[in-house]
Design goal:
The complex is a heterodimer of chains A (306) and B (259). In chain A, helix 1 runs parallel beside helix 6 and helix 3 packs across helix 9. In chain A, 75% of the residues lie in helices and 4% in strands. Chain A has one domain: Orthogonal Bundle (ABC transporter involved in vitamin B12 uptake, BtuC). Chain A has a two-stranded antiparallel sheet with strand order 1-2. With 306 residues, chain A is mainly α. Chain B has 259 residues and is α/β, with parallel strands linked by helices. Chain B has one domain: P-loop containing nucleotide triphosphate hydrolases (Rossmann fold, 3-Layer(aba) Sandwich). In chain B, 37% of the residues lie in helices and 23% in strands. In chain B, strands 5-6-7-3-8-9 form a 6-stranded mixed beta sheet, with helices on both faces. The longest helix of chain B is centred in the C-terminal third of the chain and has 16 residues. The chains are: A mainly alpha (306), B alpha/beta (259). At the A-B interface, helix 7 and helix 8 of A face helix 4 of B.
Chain lengths: 306, 259
């Protein structure tokens, strides 16, 4: 196995991205709307394309703006269709995101005539190529320190997400657990909902180029779901899901070296990271405190009398 | 200010109509709840009892009419109100402890951004002690029984330190010990001069628990002191010809004055 600095950089980008996703993903899971992450990560596509068509540039500000608007629209459309169409929420979500995604693909075909913005890249990303685009953070005569440009963008997104969740921790907790109480106390659960959707949309866009949307969807759902099997304490749950996120990235990158050694076709890093996350979930499901093996055991716990 | 709804009433509802998909759930509700009462809202399933509470709290849109809290809109009087939703309205698998849930009642006074500290935790713990489950403070909420979960909700309302309590079926499917704990709490709130509005559907206990009664079936059939309002005639008007309920009614009427 040829382990290089590139592997470290790929794990850095993948790990930061996984953590950035796991943060809003935890609250999506708690609100029982994990699929909203899937929906939004697809639905931002027309937002990106329109932002590009209007601005004519792939500048980050425009892309983020387009994505944030598309994200909030997805949430709004889903709500309206649920309310006025008398359709179940999952179905409404399906209607909205497939339609938006399709519009996005059409618009991108249009945009693609002018610039390099292609659907394959959006889906699978180009994690393997991130080490090619390095930014030097620090340099003097004896040493220098450089990181992939993608790590900076995704790192900033992670920081943003961490900041928002730290700032609004109490409000997110309340709005997720009991929107009725949040509303009567004047905490605007609807606003918190939209803020969460914006976080998901912005994270998705930040991750697009580097890691692709497949891994974003996986990391929004799997690390929080894994942590949920391991603990019933919210702050601990958030930390555990961050750890699972980083572990998935590292394990995935290590594992991506094996198929070629066995003579199998080459694989992508982001695909293996998503697979690793699934593997960790399986472990938690089997061996966790409420896991399959525990439930199978015939041992009876002594009752508590109080 | 409307003359028929003077501001000394903790809750005055005027001409309230609520409709879902153009079907009315509440129709032209007129109501004055006097201060310091333990008021029960009673009526058959689908009578709009929970809807009435939610419309007053602006949790669902009103088709017409208004609900005034001491003569002002709900928006201006948020601090005076605590709401205890139905137990099934939340996800009890949520990763928080009983103490965390009770502490949520302090969030309004705490305001945006500020995190809870020891003071709020102490307050929450005292409320749990008061309602008899202080020893369960650290327990994750899915590990609590139905009655204990209901008590957690009531403790949360207590720390809100309100003037008016809106409770949605607090007695639904609870054990005897919890029922006693809730009654004790209601009486205590009552002696402190607070007003409690409680959706209830067990006719047998109405006259023991509540001193004021609202009989609701889409419209207000009758409202007033329980002693005057809880009559066979009114109940028949409220429940219509639902025969299976008439036995309950007879039983309930026998209990009048026994408490």
């Amino acid at each position: 196995m040829n382990w290089t600095a590139n592997d470290f950089h790929i794990i850095l980008v993948g790990g930061l991205c996984a953590m950035a996703c796991a943060l809003p993903g935890t609250f999506l899971l708690l609100r029982r709307m994990s699929m909203m992450g899937d929906a939004i990560s697809h639905a931002v596509l027309p937002g990106l394309a329109i932002a590009f068509l209007i601005s004519g540039s792939r500048g980050n500000i425009w892309m983020f703006l387009g994505a944030a608007i598309a994200g909030i629209l997805t949430a709004l459309f889903t709500q309206w269709i649920t309310r006025f169409g008398k359709v179940e929420r999952g179905a409404a979500m399906g209607i909205v995101f497939t339609t938006l995604f399709a519009i996005g693909l059409v618009l991108m075909r249009k945009a693609a005539d002018h610039v390099d913005l292609d659907a394959g890249c959006v889906l699978y990303g180009a994690l393997e190529y991130t080490p090619l685009d390095m930014v030097t953070l620090f340099e003097n005569e004896t040493s220098f320190f450089a990181v992939p440009r993608a790590a900076l963008i995704i790192g900033a997104t992670l920081l943003f997400n961490a900041l928002v969740i730290t700032l609004f921790y109490k409000e997110f907790k309340l709005a997720s657990f009991d929107p009725g109480l949040a509303e009567t106390q004047g905490f605007r659960p609807q606003l918190m909902h939209h803020l969460l959707m914006t976080m998901v949309a912005v994270t998705t866009v930040a991750a697009f180029e580097a890691v692709g949307s497949i891994i974003v969807i996986a990391m929004l759902i799997v690390p929080p779901a894994t942590a949920f099997l391991l603990t019933k304490n919210l702050p601990v749950l958030i930390i555990v899901s961050l750890i699972v996120a980083v572990l998935s990235a590292a394990l995935g990158q290590v594992a991506s070296h094996f198929p070629p050694l066995l003579g199998l076709p080459d694989t992508t890093s982001s695909g293996m990271m998503a697979t690793a996350a699934g593997f960790l979930f399986l472990l938690a499901w089997l061996f966790g405190p409420e896991g399959l093996l525990k439930r199978q055991s015939r041992e009876i716990e002594a009752p508590e009398f109080d | 200010m409307r003359p028929e709804h003077p501001p000394e009433f903790p809750l005055a509802v005027h001409d309230l109509t609520v409709a879902y998909h153009r079907k009315p759930v509440l129709w032209d509700v007129e109501l004055n709840i006097p201060e310091g009462t333990l008021a029960g809202i009673v009526g058959p399933n689908g009578a709009g009892k929970s809807t009435l509470l939610k419309a007053c709290l602006e949790l669902i849109p009103k088709t017409s009419g208004e609900a005034l809290i001491y003569g002002k809109t709900y928006e201006q009087q948020r601090d005076l109100i605590a709401y205890v939703p139905q137990r099934e309205s939340v996800d009890w698998d949520f990763p928080v402890s009983a103490l965390d849930v009770v502490a949520m009642g302090t969030y309004r006074k705490l305001g945006w951004f500020k995190h809870i500290t020891g003071a709020q935790k102490k307050q929450a713990f005292e409320a749990l002690e008061k309602i008899g489950i202080g020893h369960l403070a650290r327990r994750q909420i899915s590990q609590l029984s139905g009655g204990q979960q209901q008590r957690v909700f009531l403790a949360r309302a207590l720390v809100q330190d309100a003037q008016i309590y809106f409770m949605d079926e607090p007695f639904a499917a609870v054990d005897a010990a919890t029922e006693q704990a809730i009654i004790g709490l209601l009486k205590e709130l009552n002696t402190q001069g607070k007003t409690v509005l409680c959706v209830h559907h067990d006719l047998a206990t109405v006259s023991r628990y509540f001193d004021y009664l609202v009989l609701l079936n889409m419209r207000v059939v009758a409202s007033g002191p329980t002693s005057e309002t809880f009559t066979r005639e009114n109940l028949q008007k409220t429940y219509g010809g639902k025969l299976n309920l008439l036995d309950d009614v007879a039983q309930a009427l026998k209990n009048v004055g026994r408490s």
